[in-house]
């Protein structure tokens, strides 16, 4: 259902610096976790609030200042309606890889899709013993995100990125839930969440095992999640779905979510040398 980027954890804060260095008018940050995983530098350009003329005048110099002895990738996020900025980025070699849709739901208005739970499935809070099964799902369940859609990124490392995300969530004792088959016992799905504010849950990442996708298990898993949070007094839920994941978009709307925002993600890639 979801395929977001890492979101607002203390361990994933970026430090923006003047761009071009040392005191240019733009801002850019190295993304350390992706740089370490993919073994070449990843950066994020802050451009959503940039003046298009200023961006056009300094972006080329900034990109030219990045390392040339190895591959290099720059991410830019902006509103799809910012066509002047999109045009400047495109003229400098940026290409679109994903549009993320932000969704919001008042849990009291949740639409119940499945009227009866499947007795052969059990939805529960994850334990440390569930990590290997959840890692196995995370390595093979995602294909519609910007990392898998970009041909310049090795697919196996894109898979590892989600496994790293899940492992960090278990280590940080985040809210992780699993759906398991009861006979014989097997974890077939997971969801990772966090609290945005009191009474508001952010559904960050989730998937079912690739061999049961489109079986309805994912529908049950998410429905149970929302019912669980509603029963515990939560008022709202938020989630984020790539427009590349059309089935996930449709499912999110069926639960009663409404679209609150959209973010266009563009990449710039330069091979080594």
Figure out the total of helices: 8
Average pLDDT taken over every residue: 92
Physical arrangement of strands within the biggest beta sheet:
1-2-3-4-11-5-10-9-8-7-6
Shape category: globular
Describe the protein.
- The protein is of the alpha+beta class and 273 residues long.
- The chain has two domains: 96 residues, no CATH class; 157 residues, Gcn5-related N-acetyltransferase (GNAT) (Aminopeptidase), CATH 3.40.630.
- It is built from eight helices and eleven strands.
- The chain has an eleven-stranded mixed β-sheet, with helices on both faces.
- Helix 2 runs parallel beside helix 3 and helix 4 runs antiparallel to helix 6.
- The longest helix is centred in the middle third of the chain and has 17 residues.
- The N terminus is likely disordered.
Based on the model shown, name its key terms.
single chain; 273 residues; alpha+beta; Aminopeptidase; 2 domains; eleven-stranded mixed sheet; 8 helices
């Amino acid at each position: 259902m979801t395929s977001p980027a890492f979101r607002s954890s203390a361990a994933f804060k970026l430090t923006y610096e003047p761009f071009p260095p040392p005191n240019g008018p733009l801002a850019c940050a190295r993304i350390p976790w992706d740089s370490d995983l993919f073994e070449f530098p990843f950066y994020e350009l802050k451009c959503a609030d940039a003046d298009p003329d200023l961006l056009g005048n300094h972006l080329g110099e900034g990109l030219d200042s990045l390392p040339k002895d190895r591959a290099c990738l720059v991410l830019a996020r902006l509103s799809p309606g910012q066509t002047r900025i999109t045009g400047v980025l495109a003229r400098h070699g940026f290409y679109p890889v994903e549009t993320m849709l932000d969704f919001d739901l008042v849990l009291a208005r949740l639409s119940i899709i499945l009227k009866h739970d499947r007795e052969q499935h059990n939805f529960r809070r994850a334990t440390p013993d569930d990590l290997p099964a959840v890692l196995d799902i995370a390595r093979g369940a995602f294909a519609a995100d910007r990392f898998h859609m970009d041909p310049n990124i090795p697919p196996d490392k894109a898979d590892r990125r989600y496994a790293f995300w899940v492992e960090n969530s278990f280590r940080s004792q985040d809210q992780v839930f699993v759906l398991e088959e009861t006979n014989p016992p097997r974890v077939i799905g997971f969801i990772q969440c966090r609290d945005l504010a009191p009474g508001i849950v952010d559904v960050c990442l989730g998937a079912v095992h690739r061999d049961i996708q489109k079986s309805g298990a994912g529908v049950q898993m998410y429905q149970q999640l929302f019912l669980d949070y509603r029963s515990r007094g939560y008022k709202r839920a938020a989630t984020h779905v790539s427009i590349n994941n059309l089935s996930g978009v449709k499912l999110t709307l069926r639960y009663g979510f409404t679209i609150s925002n959209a973010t266009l993600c563009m990449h710039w890639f330069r091979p080594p040398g």
